[in-house]
Amino acid sequence: MSCRDYLDIAKSWPFEEARKIIKRLEAIGGKDCVILETGYGPSGLPHIGTFGEVLRTTFVMRALRKLSDVSVKLFVFSDDMDGLRKVPTNVPNREQLEANLEKPLTSIPDPFGQYESFAHHNNAMLRRFLDSFEFEYEFKSSTEMYKSGVFNECLSKILEHYSEIMSVMLPSLREERQKTYSPFLPICQRTGKVLQVPIIETHPNSHTIVYEDPETGKLEEISVLDGRCKLQWKADWGMRWVALGVDYEMNGKDLIDSFKLSSRICDIIGGKPPENLTYELFLDEDGKKISKSKGNGISMDEWLKYAPPESLAYYMFQSPKRAKRLYFDVIPSAMDDYIDSIESFHTSGNTDMNPDSPVFHIHDGNPPHLSGCPKFSMLLNLVQACNTADENVLMEFVKKYTAGGDEAGETMDFTRKMAKFAITYYEDFVANTRNFMVPNELQRRAITELRDELEKLDHRAGADDFQTKIFEVGKRFFKDDIRGWFKILYGFLFGSESGPKMGSFIYLYGVGNTIDLINRELVNGK
Predict the structure, then answer these.
(1) Rounded to whole angstroms, how far apart are CA atoms 56 and 135?
(2) Is the model's pLDDT at 50 over the cut of 90?
(3) pLDDT reading at 406 higher than 50
(4) Region 38-56 average pLDDT
(5) Are 374 and 336 in contact (CB under 8 A)?
(6) Distances 59 to 30, 51, 128, 333 between C-alpha atoms, Å
(7) CA-to-CA distance for 504 and 526, rounded, in angstroms?
(8) What is the 3 state secondary structure string of 23-52?
(9) Over 60: is that where the pLDDT of 375 sits?
């Protein structure tokens, strides 16, 4: 089979999503450029869920390019003309934001004092991170789109079909909200606020609407064009699919009903709703939905303080339709799983024919070679065993572990980065949580015998030899509970319930050092 044949039968979800787009193109007779979109509401600092949506959509874009020669673009759209409804809890100068509630986000001063508006600041934070990951995208600002007239044609269609759109929206609203709802939100020329007020008259021929000023009681007529009004977000979502020609957009599970309503509005004004994937929500450590206004969960910068972006990409790739906890304790396993996936990719035969591997998508078909790379969990335990915050000390051990092979340089560069992350993670999350087990008489005898057996091994022994010896000792003392035997070693040596593959750890740390570590802990355990 050729590489293209393997791509055609690939089952990973980005390829399945790409095929949905191809089918769409066939139905409409083709298109010069396919548009994928992700949306961002800059009322709070960008959070990791926003990044995840861009990353996952990028996976789909890459898969589409491998299955088709069609031109593809990704738009990252910021709804920065929206009015600020509440003040985020994780920003400075909150009183400044409080004084500007209900104004467009691009009209509110930046509480950080760095940009021309709060939206500009948050947009810059998002773009900085996306750029650092080298995403290929075009940034679209709602404010710029409205004020430049890009949306004018579709806004006119919304006004022409005002009654029909109201008949779609009103049944979805609470009775009280029905009294004030309109798809149009006038921007008050007197206060600059985005108003949620009933529309008294609509004039499609002149592109205007009439509303009552809630403070003065006067009737005001205002154009819906050129940024003098914006749309409620469900109407806005459906409108911009038409205006920007969007073919594909993901959304969280909490927006299923919103997507349906926006799709109906898109149909009403002559558009075709985009293809769609509904993903599960990201949760914080307590299982609650992460929120950019609350700042719960983990931020992009926080993740990247403790692990490289590849680990985050791996975590985001897995099972998008399953809810995920996004908190600090998932980082080590994500890092280890990424390394496992790299190793599996390069040992599974013809790597060009492995398009369902997560790292195939993370690295756009060309994953790095990291042969012999130690696990992140291994490095964490090495930090504890060496009692060091010096990456150079760790690397002296790692050089032995990764010695030989043409790819040692690439592996060593990546491992040095991981060593820095491991030290930081250990100091912040592990050092004060270790709970070292004091062995009972039987456990102590088993550990002592393991030490003695290690001393007898040939100096040329490798990781597999150490692992075999550990199993042999375990079977003598804990024949019916080998898993429990390893838990004893982890608790005794590392103060945790889990740990690295012990044979590999001994090989990395050195048999002499491991024997010294056992002796030290035997003394401490008295």
Answers:
(1) 11
(2) no
(3) no
(4) 83
(5) no
(6) 22, 12, 20, 22
(7) 28
(8) HHHHHHCCCCEEEEEEEECCCCCCCHHHHH
(9) yes
Average pLDDT over residues 407-417: 81
Ramachandran area for residue 113 (φ above 0: left; ψ -120 to 50: alpha; else beta): left
Burial of residue 234, with CB atoms counted within 10 A of its CB: 0-12 exposed, 13-18 middle, 19 or more buried: buried
Q: Tokens at residue 61, please?
A: 């874009």
> CA neighbours within 13 Å on the CB side: how many for 151?
26
d(CA 182, CA 162): 9
Burial of 11 (0-12, 13-18, 19+ CB in 10 A): exposed
- Of 508, 484, 515, which Cα lies nearest the Cα of 497? 484
| Cα within 13 Å of Cα(108), Cβ side | 32
- Give the pLDDT mean for 442-463: 92
Radius of gyration of the chain (CA): 29
- Rounded CA gap, 252 and 280, in Å? 6
Which one of 46-50, 136-140, 288-292, 415-419 scores highest in mean pLDDT?
136-140
Residue 263 · residue 238 · CB < 8 Å = yes
> CB neighbours of 55 closer than 8 A, spacing ≥ 6?
133, 135, 313, 316, 317
CATH architecture of 441-524: Orthogonal Bundle (1.10)
Do the strands 184-186 and 138-141 form a parallel or antiparallel pair, or are they unpaired?
unpaired
Structure tokens belonging to residue 436: 């070292």
Place of tokens 């042999």: 472
Alpha-carbon distance 165 to 229, whole Å?
17
Which pLDDT band, with edges at 50, 70 and 90, does 75 fall under? very high
3-class DSSP state for residue 223? strand
496 near 378, Cβ under 8 Å?
A: no
Rounded mean pLDDT, 294-316: 85
What residues pair up with 39 in beta bridges, in sequence order?
Answer: 77
- What letters, b where the CB count within 10 A reaches 16 and e where it falls short, cover 419-449? bebbbebbeeebeeeeeebebeeebbebbee
Query: How buried is 374 (Cβ within 10 angstroms: 0-12 exposed, 13-18 middle, 19+ buried)?
Result: buried
pLDDT class for 371, splitting at 50, 70, 90? confident
Q: What predicted TM-score, i.e. pTM, was given to this entire model?
A: 0.87
For 202-223, give one letter per residue: b (16+ CB within 10 A) or e: beeeebbbebebeeeeeebebb
Q: What's the CA gap between 175 and 179, in Å, rounded?
A: 7
- The identity of residue 522, as a single letter, is L
Distance CA 352, CA 6 (A): 9
Confirm if 370 and 412 have CB atoms less than 8 A apart.
no
Structure token pair of residue 295: 């700042």
What's the sign of the alpha-carbon dihedral 234, 239, 242, 244?
negative
Q: Which residues pair with 210 in a beta bridge?
A: 201, 221
